[in-house]
Protein: Elongator complex protein 4
Amino acid sequence: MAATKTRTSSFSRNLPAASSAQSPEIKCGPNGTFLVSSGIPDLDKTLGGGIPLGSLVMVMEDSEAPHHMLLLRNFMSQGLVHKQPLLYASPSKDPRGFLGTLPSPSSPKDDKSRSHDAEQEKGLRIAWQYKKYFGENQSNLDGQRGMILFRFIVLYNKQEFSNEFDLRRPLDRHFYTGQHVDCISTKDLPNIAALQERCTSFLSQFSRNDATVACTGRIAIQSLCAPQCESSNMEWEMLSFIRSLKSTVRSAIAVAIITFPSSLVSATFCKRWQHLADCLVSVKAIPDEDKELAKLLTGYQDIVGFLNIHRVPRINTQVPAVLEATTLSIKLQKRRYLVLECLNQAPVDGSSGSSYGTSGSCSGASSKSGSLDF
Structure:
């Protein structure tokens, strides 16, 4: 009997062999994809759970403020916390020194009101305090005490898919000294082909066809066409590099992120670069003490910038994504934690409460009474 021929098509899913195993740093996504965290829980939620393996993320920088570094630092820290090999390319002379500025994951002792685990622990503590008023024997109390202690230990030692990072506390050195971290100074490279060779060599360790691969690789490239680099004016070579990197990442158990100053790239090539991205975002700083903007947005004093989402990864599907919001505010909660939130309009009458105008008028003139005027 003739052997059955395997059916192949352009839409066949090339699933990573190593990702099928359950691991805290990788989770299953829609359409047979596997997701890794961006290091920002709010961004993961917006992207549909995380960044799909094989994706190329591109971030358009703002010339007024380095807000793109917030995204880059959290992305790199998340990979190092999960013990994932990292390739970091930067136009600085000492890119390895940048690792000392990466944020550290927050500890369970941190007082964070938005943490569900903190609320759960508080409930357990209150329940334990009221146990003394119940007529239970000592053995039951010991059992309850042991259960609470066990749950606390599990909570403390649990490795999360997406951590919250404390921007004021640097990452411990053991996270990046004992791991495979390759740092490249693009300023010293003779051309962009040298960077492409390094990236290809790095990604060859994470082939989807290799069943022995047990980890995920991450590539972080900062300011791709920075003026201090020799290849800053080679736009065609840059375009070829991005296209090659996207193809190589797609066939590997890895993700890559590139930041670039869009103001230094011609409009034609900027559009070409954006078209190659699986996920495209841009950051924008807000002017200091913009009184008009302060009247429009609630919590303006905590906003440091805006994140615009132009495209989200759509792998193994042709269905377009429908986002709740494409512009998010970048906030620093307690000046320590990076938070992304939907923009909320300040009340029209200046009162507290609803984040939208209280007027129900359907005419051009506003009505403070809230009655419908047809």
About this structure: The mean pLDDT is 78. The chain has nine helices and 14 strands. The two ends are 78 Å apart (CA to CA).
